[in-house]
Design brief:
With 279 residues, this protein is of the alpha/beta class. The protein contains ten helices and eight strands. Strand 2, helix 5 and strand 3 form a beta-alpha-beta unit.
């Protein structure tokens, strides 16, 4: 049978998120495509530095030991990029030199790549291009923008992936958000209190949380087994959080919705409109 991505957590990610191609990108943004491609050719054998999502990619790939057959892998990371195919050669060479098992990629030479996310069965798309992220979201595919100029992802939790989800219009539909926008906070609380036991419709990021939940509950090595594994083969944990502007009593419908879906989160923060960033 041909290979399939069915049943896997598929993360599609742009090359600028995996590797630091900002110097090369400055050339590209000057509308000098030929100079950009020439620069990438010159640097084919030069391993690119890790990008802002490089640490995340490394953690994701650790879910599957190097010797695990492809048919049994739980996670697939696919490079989906506006780069040209020759630049894609450098991406794969850099991945190999960095010890990242990246095997699949789509390179579109400047064209929007989001249309390939559906046949890839992507659960998440990470890109530095705001237009591509917006197009993916419009197509119903969970997507988020990464900022290459930001500080590289923290290594303070090298054995754990931490992902926080907003509630309304993210995990859940925008039904309640529209009530708030049209009628204000009082109308929102009244709407939620009347429907406290009625599950919220799913939002675009529910499939991603479902996939993470499945990974969390698969068999994991015991503590004694963990101690025998090399650091690069030790299992990675997942910790999820719901971070929402909701507060009591609107919290109840959110929790009951997750219960109805059969999904657990490790943390829940009902901030009542407080700024979410510090959390």
């Amino acid at each position: 049978m041909p290979p399939t991505l069915d049943g896997k957590l598929v993360v599609a990610i742009s090359s600028r998120a995996v590797f630091d191609f900002e110097e090369e990108n400055l050339v590209f943004e000057r509308d000098d495509d030929a100079a950009y491609r020439a620069l990438q050719r010159e640097r084919l054998d030069e391993c690119a530095r890790p990008g802002v999502a490089g640490a995340l990619v490394r953690k994701l790939l650790r879910f599957d030991p190097p010797d695990r057959p492809e048919s049994q892998r739980r996670i697939e990371v696919v490079v989906v990029s506006r780069n040209d195919p020759v630049s894609g050669l450098r991406v794969f060479r850099s991945a190999r030199q960095a010890g990242l098992r990246l095997e699949r990629g789509v390179f579109t030479r400047g064209r929007a790549p989001w249309r390939y996310l559906t046949p890839l069965k992507a659960n998440l798309f990470l890109s530095a291009n705001a237009d591509d992220v917006a197009a993916a979201l419009a197509a119903g595919i969970p997507a988020a923008r990464v900022f290459p100029q930001s500080v590289l992802a923290s290594e303070s939790h090298p054995d754990e992936i931490r992902i926080a989800f907003d509630g309304d219009a993210v995990l859940f539909s925008d039904e309640s958000e529209r009530v708030f926008q049209q009628g204000g906070l009082e109308a929102f609380h009244r709407h939620e209190a009347e429907r406290a036991t009625l599950p919220l419709p799913p939002g675009p990021f529910k499939p991603l949380l479902e996939a993470l939940h499945r990974l969390q509950h698969e068999d994991a090595p015991s503590e004694s087994e963990r101690g025998l594994l090399a650091p690069d083969r030790a299992p990675v944990g997942i910790r999820t959080a719901l971070v929402t502007a909701r507060s009591a009593p609107a919290h109840e419908r959110a929790i009951r919705t997750l219960m109805d879906w059969g999904i657990e989160v490790d943390e829940a923060m009902f901030l009542g409109g407080l700024e979410k960033g510090p959390f």
